[in-house]
Amino acid sequence: MSTYQQERPGGALECLRARMADELFVSCRWLRDRIRNDPQPQNLVILDVSWASDKDMEEDYHSGHIPGARYFNIMDDNHTEMYPRNLPSAENFTSRAREAGINNDSHLVLYSKSQHGGMFVCGRAWWTFKYFGHKRISILDGGYNQWLEENGDVSTQPRHYSLMGNFTVNIQSNMRVDFDEMVQRVERKDQMIDSRASDKLNLQDPDTYIGNAINIPMSVLVKDYLIRPKEELRTYFTDQKVNLNEPVICYCNSGMSSCSLVLALTYCGAKARLYSGGFNEWRRRRKSSIL
After folding, report:
1. How far apart are the C-alpha atoms of 143 and 180, rounded to whole Å?
2. Domains 15-149 and 173-290 share a fold
3. In 10 A of CB 271, how many CB atoms?
4. Would you kindly state where each structural domain of the chain is located, as residue ranges?
5. How far is residue 201's CA from residue 209's CA, in Å, rounded to a whole number?
6. How far is CA 32 from the centre of its chain?
7. What is the 3-state secondary structure (H, E, C) of 75-91?
8. Distance (Å, rounded) from C-alpha 217 to C-alpha 198?
9. How deeply is 52 buried, as exposed, middle or buried, from its count of CB atoms within 10 A (0-12, 13-18, 19+)?
10. Sign of CA dihedral 24, 241, 282, 81
11. How far is CA 117 from the centre of its chain?
């Protein structure tokens, strides 16, 4: 098992990151201009998806957020010992998305206050909305921290919306790998990425990871809050022997940071899927004969 550890010099930032709205990442400048020109832009829904295991982030939302943003708890469902970061049920997710005023044609812009420019939680939120079939999703590059760095306005007023959305679930089952399929993929030696922090693993002990996984911590995806330029990321992955022309399965402990790896690989044009059960499920259910 290899790991990416050496920091490389950052590439040139892409023209102030003023990316178009139909791209995976949008800049703070782009969002600030949209809000300034139209405080309630049609079909644009800004979601604060901040989450923390030890803090009430909805309460934190009320203490300060991007103007017009709505709070959405991406982790609100039944979590278990086997699945401590469980995916919400389709019924739960549909109800909460509609209550947040999300329509099938809404353009979602996600941000969070989590580490690594918000990527830790935004990756999970992006993957969850994609899994449940939503199409127009962008991530605010740099998250809330970058918004503050660029002197973006902050509001303490919650966004009021009276109309229920018409969001409809359309599960994209091909985005997800379950345990039984993971067993087959390991036997076939398919390529996998473990996104857990390297210091959490014993790289000399195959019992601490799955199959022939490469360790690429999600922290390498971001520099100074911002997602690294696409070509730089492609170089990172290629240097770590990831074949971007072949499917990749990503996992972590319980389906959080690995979503950001799926996001980054998608951004680079690769086909990536999530083993959402992660190592937490694997170590409880694995069979020694396939290791």
Report:
1. 36
2. yes
3. 13
4. 15-149, 173-290
5. 8
6. 22
7. CCCCCCCCCCCCCCCHH
8. 7
9. middle
10. negative
11. 11
pLDDT digits (tens, 9 = 90+) for 202-221: 767 878 889 999 999 999 99
CATH code, residues 15-149: 3.40.250.10
DSSP annotation of 15 reads G
Which has the closest alpha carbon to 50: 119, 134, 142? 119
- Which of the four pLDDT bands, split at 50, 70 and 90, describes residue 116? confident
Determine the length of the chain: 291
What is the rounded CA–CA span in Å between residue 7 and residue 220?
A: 8
| Domain 173-290 coded CATH 3.30.1120.10 | no
pLDDT (tens digit per residue) in 43-78: 999 999 998 877 888 899 999 999 999 999 988 766
DSSP-derived letter for residue 149 is H
